[in-house]
UniProtKB/TrEMBL annotation, chains A, B:
Residue intervals passing through the bilayer: none
Gene Ontology MF: a single term: transcription cis-regulatory region binding
Domain HTH lacI-type as annotated: residue spans: 15-68
Alphabetical list of Pfam families matching this protein: LacI, Peripla_BP_3
Cross-referenced PROSITE patterns: HTH_LACI_2 (PS50932)
Name of the protein: Substrate-binding domain-containing protein
Keyword annotations from UniProtKB, A to Z: DNA-binding, Transcription, Transcription regulation
Organism per entry: Paraburkholderia acidisoli
Superkingdom field: Bacteria
Length: 344, 344
DNA sequence: TTGTATGCGTTATCAC
DNA sequence: GTGATAACGCATACAA
């Protein structure tokens, strides 16, 4: 009866609860109950534990998922894993892990086809929930997924009208503070390197920019608003257009850190000195922004807070009532003053 | 018989192949064969396709995994998702997706307990393979996973003695080139901010450093080698120790970009000018390194190449013989000269 | 080709 | 508490 010989090279069959039950001389149901923390007669418990050890038994998560329809896996759909989304992922991964969940990731790189493929993938993969940075034209697909019973948490960028939990930052207020700071130190011509304005995040940051200007009685001049489409190249182009205006801005506000990289590149190429010739403030803090000479003033997002909030709302929705009302969390960003902004 | 009413708020039961078969008036086996691309009578195919559309049927990946013992999910165990590992993750995610696989991630942050928990998690989760940046004291756990039939791919850092595929970069040669460059421009006292020397990556980079010095007849002085333990704070400390030597180095080589951040911070705090007072060269290229004033000379890893190689070797091993001999890939890094290194 | 039946490893529902 | 046994959704061997 010695069955220890595994097929060399091939995938060995690992022990199941049936094997454990046999070896422990108990019923399979008893083993299951042990595994799920239900009360067990002491003698049986010891037998079972011995068997589990000896057989190196590990519960097959796939089978559990199939029975219970719960995978403990959460999907994450993100455009990239740059410093911002990477940090986000890292914190979220850790926070979810504390609740016994893990992240299945899909990275679409802004490519529409890939996004759709990603949604497709997630709808067959039976995830417990989906976390994503919203993309407007995915509305229908996401909506279907929700209909199929998969809870959704939106972060970073909204998709209006979806039955979902939301965790965002106060884009509008934070941007207003940022621009207000520039106005406070005397700037009057402030350029905005914006994200795609259809994106709620870009829109919010744009509105905050407007708020600050209007508050000081400065009319919003559309020529000073250029979209950098969230990318480094786009940010570079946008900044260049801004700086070649007849009256170039004396300060630039970039709606994310990637585009700020493009702006820095532009300043460098055009030999525009910062902060002597132009001030810069950017959304998102990056590791090097504090080290860069001069340090770059930023609006720092509470990335860990966002991650934890996502994990929290997920835990509540998944653990308790799935029908609880949808929540909308709004976290505060912090303006960190550094050397890149100075009075005109 | 109208069963379209879903339990409001609760998880709706989604259509199975049984439902599809019923509606299409074919046997369940036929549907399965259709799904798996086997030949099907035309009339049946049309019926089935209609049913799938109407029922919004999506194949249940969990059930498939249970039957076939293949999940199409690959585990990734990484210390963090900073710029390096984030980029790695992004490329790997995309490369794997092309072969129909996705990544289940676990981030341990260098915490031993979390690493072990991660291994635990992956051994119940029935992943098709595990990709990881090696951690020496995980040898036993990883070995068990391999015994359980899970192929392993090591990248970034090795664990010696494991039956695994390996995808690394030429740490030793690349480091030699980097240090050689410093010597070429006249430096004689070159400091090394090293990673933990037990790590193969750190060791390789250290050896390359030694190679270059010895090649020029310069003895390796242990006082010029300080470990920064891969972290920003560690790198900062290490650099500080280096710079407070009676004869401080005129050039510093940092074994990764995170510690280079610490070095930069040190220079900044100590008002050591770069490159006037000290030259710096770092392993890994970071987005801001090219923009930083002066640009930072780096040894750039072919991150995309690493990711693609991992995907390739995985595809081969998973698709064809699981028993194929283990491969070891070694990719070339590229030294990118920028302003942070200059002749003494 | 197609239909039928069995099993993958668990959980859950019964009687006992 | 425990032991049988029926699912879960799918793939597959086998007979038709």
């Amino acid at each position: 009866m010695n069955d220890d010989t595994q097929n060399e090279g091939d995938k060995p069959r690992s022990a199941t609860i049936v094997d454990v039950a046999k070896r422990a001389n108990v019923a399979i149901g008893t083993v299951s109950r042990y595994l799920n923390g239900f009360p067990i007669r002491r003698a049986n418990r010891e037998q079972i534990e011995e068997a589990i050890q000896a057989l190196r038994f590990r519960r097959n998560a796939t089978a559990v998922a199939m029975k219970t329809d719960v995978t403990h896996v959460v999907g994450l759909l993100a455009p990239s894993f740059d410093e911002f989304h990477g940090a986000m992922l890292e914190h979220l991964s850790r926070a979810l892990r504390r609740d016994g969940r893990a992240l299945l990731i899909y990275c679409h790189g802004g490519d529409t086809r890939l996004m759709e493929d990603g949604m497709d993938y997630f709808s067959t993969q039976r995830i417990d929930a989906l976390v994503m940075s919203g993309e407007d034209h995915l509305f229908d697909r996401v909506d279907q997924l929700i209909d199929a019973g998969v809870p959704l948490v939106l972060y970073d960028n909204d998709i209006a009208g979806l039955k979902a939990d939301r965790v965002f930052v106060n884009n509008r207020e934070a941007s207003m503070h940022a621009v207000r700071h520039l106005l406070d130190i005397g700037h009057r011509r402030v350029g905005l390197v914006s994200g795609d304005l259809e994106d709620s995040a870009a829109h919010g940051r744009y509105l905050g920019y407007c708020d600050a200007l209007e508050e000081r009685g400065i009319a919003v001049d559309p020529r000073y608003v250029e979209s950098g489409h969230w990318t480094i190249l786009g940010g570079n182009d946008a900044t260049r257009r801004l700086m070649s205006l007849p009256q170039p801005p004396t300060a630039v506000f970039s709606a994310n850190y990637v585009m700020a990289l493009g702006a820095l590149r532009c300043f460098k190429d055009a030999r525009v000195r910062m902060p002597e010739d132009v001030s810069l403030i950017s959304f998102d803090d990056a590791a090097l922004f504090g080290l860069y000479e001069p340090g770059i003033t930023v609006v720092a997002q509470p990335i860990n807070g966002v991650a934890q909030s996502i994990a929290d709302v997920l835990e509540r929705r998944l653990r308790s009532e799935r029908s609880m009302p949808f929540s909308s969390t709004n976290l505060r960003c912090e303006v960190i003053l550094r050397g890149s902004t100075r009075p005109v």
